[in-house]
Amino acid sequence: MYLEIFSFCPRWGQTHLSWDEFAKRVKESGYDGVETDVPAVKKEKDIVLNTLAKYGLKLVAQHWETVEPDFEQHLEAYKKRLEIMAAAKPLLINSQTGKDYYTLEQNAALIAEAAKTSVSTGIPVYHETHRGKFSFAAHITAEYLRQLPELLLTLDISHWVAVAETLLHDQQDAVDLAISRTRHFHARVGHTQGAQVNDPRAPEWQEALDMHLRCWDKVYSANKQAGQPFLTFTAEFGPYPYMPQLPYTRQPVVDQWEVNAYMNDLLKSRYRKA
Question: Given CA atoms 225, 125, 184, 21 in this order, what sign does their dihedral have?
Fold first, then answer.
């Protein structure tokens, strides 16, 4: 059985382009959609949604904006953001959820709010593995997955590589558990000292690239075996400060768009054959 795969381009790093210019380029580059935050202002939101519709592009709504350190304020802000994103009717919501210093109970309460949104709207909410969030490390996320059987993930394993300062060979059980609960993934390659290699095409990063590819292959296989209707990924190499710059001139060492296009083509070709 073939598992359909949809690829998404991040708006992150491309805000110098108008929405029309950006969406046109995304479509021409062979992506199926865009991953972006959803504006709260109706006029701005309409521009985003109308432009995506014009070019026949799908939407992954990205949540990152809830930053309040106080838990009660954070919870209320998160509820509002979930409402805004769900109203845009995306294919799915990708949520950077909670704080690494919140208790398990506090982060679980935020995850429960996302689950309520999924039930009431039919839009799945997947929680991104990300530094600074509840899911900042493989071994910590494993505990949430064991205690919350409905928890589903966006796997950005580059963050875990940086946090652990290893390619996670010593945490395979935690990684495999996360893979079994992944429904969306971010195709960025990390290394033991950071969440983004400068250029995944460079031979010095072959070991890191191969490790990430093995994880994504397992995600694809797990979703295929589970009978999921489709799988999604975002080619998510980012701009500065994720992207290294040359000193003084502040020129990026590689073109972000080119790298993401490479990742998109690599993975779409890889899984077309699966």
Answer: positive
